[in-house]
Amino acid sequence: MKKRSVYLIGLLILNAALFFPLFAYTQCFQSNTVFGDGEKISYTVSYNWGPVWVDAGLVSFSVTNEQFRGKPCYHLKGTGTSYKSYDLLFKVRDYFDAWIDPDTFKSYDFKRYVYEGGYTLINTLTFDYNQQKVIANTKSNKNPQRTDTLPVKPCAFDMLSAIYYTRTLDYSDLQAGNKKHVTILIDDAYYDIYIRYLGREVVESTDGNRYRCIKFAAKMVQGTIFKGEEDVLVWVTDDANKIPIYIEAKIIVGTIKAYMKQSKGLRNAFTSVVR
Questions:
Q1: Which has the closest alpha carbon to 231: 255, 267, 258, 212?
Q2: Residue 28, C-beta contacts closer than 8 angstroms, at least 6 positions apart
Q3: What are phi and psi of 229, to 5 degrees?
Q4: Residue 2 has pLDDT above 50, yes or no
Q5: Left if phi > 0, otherwise alpha if psi is -120 to 50, otherwise beta: which for 192?
Q6: Rounded Cα distance, 190 and 178, in Å
């Protein structure tokens, strides 16, 4: 079994736990009133080490308006970094980059750089919509570089851009128990998961605030991290920002939690805070 750190897992959870089904890009995306240039959100990731919970690292996300190959885009960034006190046990430096069209949410380019306890991986995805293909390059310190060509699937997203896309969707018509299916592109393969709407709850975060949230359970891909069951619970703010506040996941080697630590540059007021 390959080792995977809690920081990468935290990123995967935050990117994979909230997906909804999509049918065509023109049908998938309506408008974005949820986030914009300058938004930054960070999470503390804790790992269950036997009876003890250990704050092991920090996961951060940011959005900036940039140009990519002459086109206006959102540049999305995600990082997973172990605390220095944890580096001696398992050092992690994970970086995710995605450039997407702000009007359609189509991915232009995706990059993932992983360093986890000596294990390294580089994955890039280049999207060619004229040829309807994705070029995936993957290399690790255990395997030589390989190049794969995959078909473009309508409304299947890279790991990082999907979380931002799902935040733009309307949750108001969901009923308890409803399931939604989605396809996610990870490295050089597509995977199908679903989420199940569980209702609304108030959650207290580590910042001392209590938030009105929408709660979901997610069935994940069976493999080296998850058992392939509804392994993840996620609470999203029930307001115009739709930010994941708290994530709890059962993984093969234990349990992890991720709490929102800080947010800046939000597009909308934080109306989900319970006074």
A1: 255
A2: 22, 105, 154, 155, 165
A3: -110, -165
A4: no
A5: beta
A6: 23
Tokens of 34: 């949820």
pTM value is: 0.84
Tell me if 247 sits within 8 A of 254, measured CB to CB.
no
Q: Residues 111-164: pLDDT tens digits?
A: 999 998 888 999 999 999 999 999 999 999 988 999 999 999 887 888 888 778
Other CB atoms within 10 A of residue 34 CB: 20
CA distance 226 to 186: 15
Report the distance separating Cα 42 and Cα 60, nearest Å: 4
Name, of 18-22, 34-38, 85-89, 185-189, the range with top average pLDDT: 34-38
Tokens 């605390």, residue located: 83
Segments making up each domain of the chain, as ranges: 6-264
202/209 Cα distance (integer angstroms): 10
Of 82, 18, 94, the C-alpha closest to 56 is 82
* Structure token digits, residue 216: 């979901």
- Residue 224 has a pLDDT of 43
Give me the phi and psi of 2, to 5 degrees please: -75, 145
Burial class (CB in 10 A: 0-12, 13-18, 19+), 132: exposed
